[in-house]
Amino acid sequence: MKRAAIGVALLLFSQGCKDAPSANTPGSTETRLEAGPGNGQEITVLHTMPEGAVVPDGTVWIPGGVFRQGAVGHDPMAMAHEKPAHWVAVDGFFMDTTEVTNAQFSKFVSETGYITVAEREIDWEELKKQLPEGTPKPHDSILQPGSLTFKKAKQTVPNLYDFSQWWQWTIGANWKQPHGPCSNIRGKENYPVVHIAYEDALAYCEWAGRRLPTEAEWELAARGRNVEKIHFWGDEVSKLREYANTWEGEFPVTNQKADGYELLAPVGTFKANGNGLYDIAGNVWEWTGDWYNTNYYKDLPARNDTLVNPGGAEVPFTSGNPYARERVIKGGSFLCSASYCASYRVSARMGTSLDSSMEHLGFRTVRDAE
Question: Mind listing the domains of the chain with CATH numbers?
Answer without folding.
Answer: 96-370 (3.90.1580.10)
